[in-house]
Design a protein that fits this description.
Strand content: 15-25%
Number of domains: 2
CATH architecture of the largest domain: 3-Layer(aba) Sandwich
Number of strands: 14
CATH topology of the largest domain: Hexokinase, domain 1
Number of helices: 12
Shape: globular
Largest sheet: 6 strands, mixed
Length: 323
């Protein structure tokens, strides 16, 4: 069967025709990316996508949204769209639909992705276990955390969490300084304040102050660009520090969730893949005292699927409507 897979964030809404084969395999057509600011509502964006497909699309859809999905009205932080799930069949002309949180969709993608969609970051270079819990950590605008439990026979359950809001625990003097800087603004500092895209600004500025250097960059995108390209050594050092902290947090999440494997997800993780491999990410992930040998035995992967939100939304639909 076919359906429309949709991944809606603050800036972009991505659409693709997804096909679920008789064997359950999921294939995505060419994605269409629309800017949310260019469309007054989700319905007008849907109509624009439909027009791009010749005026006809399947009468089923799966929607991943950047926010909670349990209420009668879904609102977005960074765009003015409002979605009322009860009205989706009427407004979009579909017979069946699935709605899932965007990081829940990533969980479905992790559960269904092939071995070829992963890059080994540390631990044994082997496939993710077919049974047990997989912890998922996704740095982006915030820090997404979820876990997937797999039964070893192809069945699985996804649980989105708020693990990005656990307390940040510094491990050295540099992280002590980052925490002190953040405590000037926040009574409580969560890991999301240190391990997310915008957090690179505080890491960069802390390093500049500690080294007595002028703060040349103030925009997070500029710091990521200058650091990954190597054109700014201070920005590169900030990214290296980010990778260390991400390793620590991913290890903490794995311990808390009893993981048998760990997946780093999100566009930011993919963007800094080379930095993750070259940094102390792996050492920090393992550095859990008496449990260091346990941590070293966990495979840690980066998901490299180009559209995990769309793929995961389609997988969520398949689990709900075809299982």
């Amino acid at each position: 069967m076919q359906l429309v897979a949709i991944d809606i964030g603050g800036t972009h809404a991505r659409f693709a025709i997804a096909t679920i084969g008789n064997d359950g395999a999921i294939a995505l057509g060419e994605p269409v990316t629309l800017h949310t600011k260019d469309h007054a509502s989700f319905q007008t964006a849907w109509e624009a996508f439909t027009a791009s497909q010749g005026g006809t699309v399947p009468r089923a859809c799966a929607i991943a949204v950047a926010g909670p999905v349990g209420g009668e009205v879904i609102r977005f932080t960074n765009n003015p769209w409002i979605i009322r799930p009860a009205l989706i069949p009427e407004k979009l002309g579909v017979d069946r639909f699935t709605m899932v949180n965007d990081f829940g969709a990533v969980g479905h993608a992790v559960a269904r992705a092939s071995d070829a969609d992963y890059l080994a970051l540390c631990g044994p270079d082997q496939a993710l276990p077919a049974s047990g819990t997989l912890s998922i950590v996704g740095p982006g605008t915030g820090l997404g955390v979820a876990h997937v439990w797999r039964d070893g026979a192809g069945g699985y359950r996804v649980q989105a969490t708020e693990g990005g809001h656990i307390d940040f625990a510094p491990l050295d003097s540099i992280e002590d300084a980052i925490l002190a800087r953040l405590r000037q603004r926040y009574r409580r500092v969560s890991v999301e304040r240190v391990v997310s895209g915008p957090a690179i600004v505080d890491i960069y500025e802390t390093r500049a102050v500690m080294e007595g250097k002028a703060i040349q960059l103030s925009d997070d995108r500029a710091i990521w660009t200058a650091g990954t390209s190597g054109e700014d050594s201070l920005a590169a050092a900030a990214i290296d520090r980010f990778c260390l902290s991400l390793g620590s947090v991913a290890g903490d999440i794995a311990l808390a969730q009893g993981a048998s494997g760990v997946v780093i997800a999100g566009g930011l993780g993919l963007r800094i893949r080379d930095s993750l491999l070259a940094s102390g990410f792996a050492q920090r992930f393992r550095a859990k005292g008496r449990f260091e040998s346990l941590m070293a035995a966990l495979p840690v992967k980066l998901i490299t699927h180009p559209q995990p939100g769309l793929f995961g939304a389609a997988a969520a639909f398949a689990q709900e409507h075809t299982s």
